[in-house]
Amino acid sequence: GVSTNGSSTLALTRDTSVVKQNITDLVSAFNFVNSTLDTISDPKSSDTTIGATLPNNSLVRQVRQQVLKMVTENSSTPGTNIKALRDLGIAIQRDGTLKIEDPTKLDDALQSNYADIEHMFSNDAFTASTSSAVSSGLAGDAVKKLAELTSPTGIIATQSKNASNEVNTGKDDLAKLEDRMSKLLDRYTQQFAAMDSLMAQMNSLKAQLKSTFDGMSAKNN
User: Fold this and answer.
1) How far apart are the first and last CA of the chain?
2) Does residue 67 contact residue 34 with C-beta atoms inside 8 Å?
3) Residue 67 and residue 58: Cα distance in Å, rounded?
4) How far apart are CA 118 and CA 137, in angstroms?
5) Dist. CA 21–CA 105, nearest whole Å
6) Which residue, 51, 117, 110, is CA-closest to 79?
7) Counting C-beta atoms within 10 Å of the first and last residue's C-beta, which end of the chain has fewer, N or C?
C-alpha cells in the first residue's frame, strides 16, 4: 500500500521471500518423490538400495497419479486470479519434473495476488488438518491425501502387508517343497541302495554261474 503525508510518500512492500522459498521447496519435494518412484519402478535401475524393487507395480502408478493430481489440479479453494500452481508459472515438464517456468510470473503474483495465493494454498487456515472435512486448499488437501496414503489402512501399508503375507506364504510353500524333495531324495537313495545291492548280488551270481559252467566244461573235456 502507499501512505502519503504532505510531500512524503512511504511505499510498503510485502516480504514474500518465505512464501517463495516454500513454493520452491514444494517443487523440489515433488521432483524428489518423482525421481524415487522412477528408481523403484525402473527394471534396469543401477541403484543398489531401492532400484527395480517395484517394477510394473500398480501401487507406484497409484501413488504417482495421486501426487501428480496434487500439483496439477485446481485448488479446492481457488482464488479469483490464482486457482492452481500453473497460475504461478509452475508446470510439469516432458520428463515428469515440476519446474518454475516463469519466475517473473511467480514474483508478480506474490506481490499482486498474495491473498489469492494464501486462499488457494490453505483456505486462509494457519495449519492443515488431516481430519477436517472442510476444503483446505491445495496444500491442506495434499496433507490430508498424504496422510491417507501413508495411514495404517492406506494403500501403501495395505500392499506392504499383502506382500509380507505373500512372502510368508512363499516361505511356507518353499519349506513344504524342501520337505517333499528331502523325502523324495531319501526314497531315491533307498532305491539306489537296493539297486546297488541287487547289482552286487547279480554280479556275484554271474561269477558263481561262470565258475560252475567253467567247471562243467573242464569235466566234459
Assistant:
1) 139
2) yes
3) 14
4) 9
5) 15
6) 117
7) C
Q: Is 10 helix (H, G, I), strand (E, B) or coil?
A: strand
- Which phi and psi (to 5°) does residue 100 adopt? -80, 95
Q: How far from 62 is each of 68, 121, 155, 191, CA to CA, in Å?
A: 10, 23, 9, 55
User: Minimal CA–CA distance to 83: which of 113, 103, 108, 111?
Assistant: 113
Q: How many CB atoms lie within 10 A of CB 55?
A: 13
Q: Measured between alpha carbons, how far is 93 from 99 in angstroms, rounded to an integer?
A: 7
Helix (H) and strand (E) counts in the chain: 6, 4
Q: How many Å apart are CA 120 and CA 142, to the nearest integer? A: 12
Contacts of 110 (CB under 8 A, 6+ apart): 14, 16, 19, 20, 117
* Reported pTM: 0.69
**Interatomic CA distance for residues 137 and 144, integer angstroms:** 11
Reported as a single tens digit per residue, the pLDDT across 52-106 is 988 988 889 999 999 999 999 999 999 999 999 999 999 999 999 999 999 999 9
Grouping H, G, I as helix, E, B as strand and the rest as coil, residue 13 is coil
